Amino acid sequence: MTATPDLGTPQLASPDLLRSTFRRHAAGVAVITARGTAGPVGFTATSLTSVSAEPPLVSFGIGTGASSWPAIAEADHVGVHILGEHQSELAATFARSGADRFGAPTAWREGPEGVPVLDDVLAWLVCRIVGRVPAGDHRIVLAEVVLGDPSGAGRPLLYHQGRFNGLRD
């Protein structure tokens, strides 16, 4: 019989268990934007994933109760922005409920397909939505890359333990 390592006190599955576990998982920070009927919408996402290189596909999750969901549910295209460590305030603005996300000091312009494109990010993509997959209280959005610019300078912004952080050497 093999010895069992000390597992601490396991918890049954719950939203709190999932949140507590993923606070320990460092994730890159992105902002997803779209054109909505009442103006631009956007939100901070740590669920961005590269899905496929051929064709180039990405995915991200969004809660169906999120203020941006109605626009994302109807949009043909979205903007995906990889934030730099100098953009923790921008990330916080797009994460905050009720914030004026596109007002000053947010710098942006209308990009291809009418998608709002944020200035001074490490990289941005415009993607065509190809699927919205139900997943609990969220939807996993699959989007095919149409075009983008990966040439921004700097280091990535990370999210860990409930805070935005930069990389340490």
UniProtKB/TrEMBL annotation:
Per UniProt, residues of the Flavin reductase like domain are: 22-166
One Pfam family, please name it: Flavin_Reduct
Task: Enumerate the UniProt keywords alphabetically.
Answer: Oxidoreductase
Which organism is the protein's source?
Answer: Streptomyces bangladeshensis
Does the record carry Oxidoreductase as a key word?
yes
Please state what the protein is called: Flavin reductase family protein
Q: Which InterPro entries match?
A: Flavin_Rdtase-like_dom, NADH-dep_flavin_reductase, Split_barrel_FMN-bd
Say if the entry is tagged with keyword Oxidoreductase.
Answer: yes
